[in-house]
Predict the structure of ABC transporter permease.
Amino acid sequence: MPFDLLSPAVTALLVESLKQTAYMVSVAAVVSTALGLPLGVLLVVTSPGHILPLPIFNRVLGTVVNLVRSTPFIILMVAIIPFTRFVAGSSVGTSAAIVPLTVAITPLFARLAETAMREVDRGLIEAAEAIGASPLQIIVRVIIPEALPSIVAGQTVALVSLIGYSAMAGTVGGGGLGDLGVRFGYQRFMPEVMAAVVIVLVAIVQSVQLLGDAAARAVNHRIARGKRSASRA
């Protein structure tokens, strides 16, 4: 059957691969956010001079995060195959690919969240300490809310990277758009399939970036309105 760009066969393959990519990215994004944000908080609050200084713990944690971040994703996928099998029951397939994707993105998001939270005005933290706020209250009511626009922007960057990693995971049995591009576009010499995959990936990344930028602006405006209302009160 001829594979032209608009053929039913190509469309069916694209739809199925898109579903697999969406599944991998969405689950990995949720899990990496749930793990990365607390990790970022720990990197901030345990640093010297902050509200819970633990220099040795902070250095060890930072070293581990840096080691994972500095490992190329392809190598990381292979290196943690035993862990992937333990968690997912297999090292091949869409569900299995979620494990290395999560491991790769969590430290990236943690560092982005850490950078965002370090930009919070130190005076606000000191004011909260002066009125007797506990460390948990400072984290929940001061640090995270003040850094939220930058955290959302950082999550957008992490999500774009995650989409790229998901395509890479497809080249080694993870399924999704990357697998479709390699198996049909490259190995079977079907450039129209490769072109379709690239177009879809670019569209996804652009959509995620636009939505992420809009969300960051919306959060920033809401925080600004809240501050103005509090100052008038």
